[in-house]
Design goal:
The protein has about 270 residues and is of the alpha+beta class. It has 2 domains: about 40 residues; about 170 residues, Muramoyl-pentapeptide Carboxypeptidase, domain 2 (2-Layer Sandwich). The protein contains 8 helices and 11 strands. Bound molecules: zinc ion.
């Protein structure tokens, strides 16, 4: 093949150039961009670790209240931004809970802590009777989960009910909150405490509509009727506020209720 310089008539002047050593050839063989990239790797790794650590701290509610720049949630406001981190900020902050869980959006009273024993107990929990105008009786539930429930009921669930059933939901049927037990039905997590053991989870079995009709997970999840569509949309909309939302599609243990929790997992099924 003809060298490119030959076509342009300008041959390189090799005769006058000093002889190249092997080292010089080797050095030139490493492109400058690779050298630059290599030197940036430790800095980028450090940055990723720092950002990852910060994200973890916000996600787990470990950022001290005085240093947390995120504003308190407002139960009256739809579509809150960074809602997961703002919910997590309430985990260890009873004062913030008292400021957020207020009438008329919810009726929730703080209850005394029950220090962990054998992996069971709760801190910063409430007794809740309504949220978003929906009767929702949950005896012992963490403030974080109660706030997630209040936001979901007031904003997303009512929209889903209006759009699909043409009316409001007036109550949800509790299938339980606090229960000192391990996870049931999961193959690999049998020896792990359930989020129910720390009151950080709640189960819902049915919804009552304004006309008095009840729609149950056990009876109406299957099929393609309007009730099934409502239940599926309700299930999916809860995933915005709860980290783990499980229904009949997850496993047989959930054939008759939705499980909603604010634990460390992330699953919507
Ligand atoms: Zn559950």
């Amino acid at each position: 093949m003809t060298p490119l310089w030959a076509l342009h008539g300008a041959a390189p002047d090799l005769a006058g150039a000093p002889p190249l050593s092997i080292d010089a050839v080797m050095q030139d063989a490493v492109p400058a961009t690779t050298k630059k990239r290599r030197s940036r790797v430790p800095r980028i790794t450090l940055l990723v670790l720092v950002l990852g650590g910060l994200a973890f701290a916000f996600r787990q509610g470990l950022v001290p209240a005085a240093l947390n720049p995120l504003p308190a949630l407002d139960l009256g406001g739809a579509n809150p931004w960074l809602v997961d981190w703002r919910l997590a900020a309430m985990k260890y902050n009873p004062d913030l809970c008292r400021r957020v869980l207020v009438a008329p959006h919810t009726d929730a009273q703080p209850i005394a802590d029950s220090p962990l024993r054998d992996g069971c107990g709760w801190t910063n929990a409430v007794r809740m009777s309504q949220a978003g105008g929906v009767r929702a009786g949950f005896d012992k539930v963490t403030c974080e989960a109660a706030t997630a429930l209040a936001l979901w009921l007031e904003h997303d669930l009512q929209d889903v009910a209006q759009a699909i059933m043409g009316q409001r939901v007036t109550s949800v049927q509790s299938y339980g909150t606090y229960s000192c037990r391990n996870i049931i039905g999961a193959k690999f997590w049998k020896s792990r405490r359930s989020e129910h053991a720390t009151a950080n989870a709640l189960d819902i079995g049915a919804f009552t509509l304004a006309d008095g009709r009840s729609i149950s997970v056990r009876g109406q999840w299957r099929g393609d009727g309007v009730e099934a569509r409502f239940l599926r949309a309700a299930h999916d909309s809860a995933c915005r506020y709860f980290r783990v939302v499980l229904g009949p599609d997850y496993n047989a243990e959930h054939h008759d209720h939705f499980h909603l929790d604010r634990g460390i997992g992330w699953l919507c099924r």
